[in-house]
Structure formats: C-alpha cells, structure tokens
Amino acid sequence: MGIQIRLPVEDEMYDLAELFKCFGDSTRIRILCVLLEGEFCVNDIAEALNMTQSAVSHQLKLLKQAKLIEGKRDGKQILYSLADEHVRSIINIGLEHIEE
C-alpha cells in the first residue's frame, strides 16, 4: 500500500514555481526590499539601489507580471508598491529563515 499525498494540481505547482523564480534574483529582491518601505517611483528606486532607470524598469515589469507589485499613476509618474501583505510576509519570512 503506497502513501497517500494530496498535492496541488499541476497548474498550481507550475505557478508556484514561477512565483519563486521571481525571488531567485537578487536585483528583484533588492527592489522588493525598497518597496517594503513604501511607494516609490522608478527614479527613487534606481537612486536608492544605485542602478539605471532602465534596469529598474525592466525588473519592475517582471515583478508586476508576477503580481508581486502594483503601480498607480501619480501625475506623470507611476508609484510602485508591494501588491499585498502576502508579498511582505514572504520577504519577512525569508529574512527570518536566513537569519536563524
């Protein structure tokens, strides 16, 4: 008699793997850590991380596609923030784990 394990459906496992791929890049982690502090435009994030605006924009696009961040228009610029408390929790739990 084999063990009985209830696994998520294949599509959910694929989506979860894709989500964690986004956390596998230190540049994206750095951007997410900036956004832990609040809403910022591309220029502010680029300045905080000593990166080009183009490089930050590219990573923001990937983070937005993964639904980890969101942007809202403020005049001519877009302010980026974490999508929800789940993202904040994932980052904080990861930090707690590596600090043990």
TL;DR?
With 100 residues, the chain is α+β, with helices and mostly antiparallel strands. Helices cover 59% and strands 12% of the residues.
Task: Summarize the helices and strands and which ones pair or pack.
Elements: H1 10-22, H2 26-35, H3 42-49, H4 53-65, E1 69-74, E2 77-82, H5 85-99
Antiparallel strand pairs: 1-2
Helix pairs in contact: 3-4
Give your account of this protein's structure.
There is one protein chain. With 100 residues, the chain is of the alpha+beta class. The protein has a single domain (11-99), classed as Orthogonal Bundle (Arc Repressor Mutant, subunit A), CATH 1.10.10. The protein contains five helices and two strands. It has helices spanning 10-22, 26-35, 42-49, 53-65, 85-99, and strands at 69-74, 77-82. Strands 1-2 form a two-stranded antiparallel sheet. A hairpin with a 2-residue loop joins strand 1 (69-74) and strand 2. Helix 3 (42-49) packs across helix 4. The model has no long low-confidence stretch (mean pLDDT 94).
